[in-house]
Amino acid sequence: MSFARATALALALCACLLALPASAGAKSIKGIDVSRFQGIIGWKQVGETQNRFAYLQASRGSGNDCLVASDRCGVDETYDRNYRNAKAVGLRVGAYHRAFASGSTPQAAKEDARIEANLFISVVGKVRSADLRPAIDVETPFDDMTEVSLRAWIKAWNSRVEKKLREKPLIYTNASSWAATGDTTSFAGLGHPLWVANFDVPKPIVPAGNWGGKGWTIWQFTSSGKVRGIDGNVDRNRLAGGFAKLSAG
């Protein structure tokens, strides 16, 4: 090949690369999260979309201290069905608990956290090797809590779940909710990946100093997504960096 021809090919290749979107070489993995509020899901249709993972609500509060839709707290009755059917169509699956934290003192907070953790553990049972790590949904409202008691609550829930399920949970939150912890970086330092919620923006606001400099692992970018197989709105997510950080085992 002549020098002139090689140069021309190299320039053409550079032009093609420059024409590609900036994210073309590092596309995020698409996924959803669901709960009983989505009703019966057509997982076969979901499996035919570009979504590759699903986080499923296993439990919600502990019943008595659930401050939002209190009649729909406790065990999520759709979890077992969603788990089986999502896995059957090849999706990577994880379980999450929607916390309703309460306790004005660290001791009261720890006791409440353990009740909610035990509920979650009883539903999930175990984390299988192909599953994703469990997750705790930490968002307002918080019932009569200080920064100290909220941090104690989160730590107690994570510790109980990690001990029983043998996996370090990831933390779902948003910047305004996490501010109630004092915007602590301690959980980032302990190795809990961040699942951040920030809707309809080019990039999310990441709490706790960009999660201790580690950034987000999952970004929930909308609560009004549309996915075949699901009636109504559904939360949609992007996973950065592949499944390795979230895979159980």
Descriptive report:
The structure is a single chain. With 249 residues, the protein is an alpha/beta fold. It has a single domain, classed as TIM Barrel, CATH 3.20.20. The protein has 8 helices and 9 strands. An 8-stranded mixed barrel has the order 1-2-4-5-6-7-8-9. α4 (106-124) links the parallel β4 and β5 (135-137). α4 (106-124) runs parallel beside α5. It starts with a helix and ends in a 10-residue tail after the last strand. The model is unreliable at 1-25 (pLDDT under 50).
Low-confidence stretches: 1-25
Query: At the first level of CATH, what is the class?
Result: Alpha Beta
Task: State the secondary-structure class.
Answer: alpha/beta
Number of helices: 8
Strand content range: 15-25%
How many distinct folded domains? 1
CATH architecture: Alpha-Beta Barrel
| Outline | globular
> What is the residue-averaged pLDDT?
90
Biggest β-sheet: strands ordered side by side in the sheet: 1-2-4-5-6-7-8-9
Distance between the termini: 51 Å
Mind summarizing the main beta sheet? 8 strands, mixed, barrel
What is the CATH superfamily label? Glycosidases
DSSP, total strands: 9
Helix content: 25-40%
What name does CATH use for the topology? Answer: TIM Barrel
Taking all Cα atoms into account, the compactness measure Rg is 20 Å
